[in-house]
Design goal:
This protein has 140 residues and is an all-alpha fold. It is built from four helices and no strands.
Length: 140
């Protein structure tokens, strides 16, 4: 039986002594050791995969059919005036108190209007100009 560590030690000792005939033998021994090491790692990985199954591979439970209720149409008392109802004001006040603290005060409320198409185009053009100007190297 060939003992790889002893053979490797002899080949290395001969190579260090100046005998250059065993370079291919040393290379073959090193490559075979690397191949054995890779095979051991693959075997160890397969053993771990067999003993520790992946949580994602469990079969998914059957989907539950949930009956969707009919949409609820709420009667909004101030829908046409643009002022929020008492419920919306209470939710806003609770959110402000939660985020800013109980001593925070709401100074006023305004409904936000969506920006016009012209305003959006102007913002895009300004951003494009900003990117172009920042990409140039300034003169010194």
């Amino acid at each position: 039986m060939i003992n790889l560590p002893i053979l490797f030690a002899q080949a290395t000792a001969q190579n260090a002594a100046g005998d250059s005939g065993n370079k291919w033998l040393v290379l073959a021994i090193i490559l075979s050791c690397v191949a054995i090491f890779i095979a051991l790692i693959a075997l160890f990985g397969r053993i771990l995969a067999a003993t520790h199954p992946d949580e994602k591979k469990k079969p998914a439970p059957a989907p539950v059919q949930v009956a969707t209720p009919a949409p609820v149409v709420a009667d909004v008392p101030n829908a046409g005036t643009g002022t929020p109802s008492e419920h919306v004001l209470a939710v806003i006040a609770a959110a402000v108190a939660t985020v800013c603290g109980p001593k925070a005060r709401i100074a006023g409320l305004q409904t936000a209007k969506p920006p016009s198409v012209e305003a959006l185009m102007q913002m895009w053009s300004l951003e494009g100009r900003r990117q172009i100007y920042t990409s140039h190297n300034p003169r010194r």
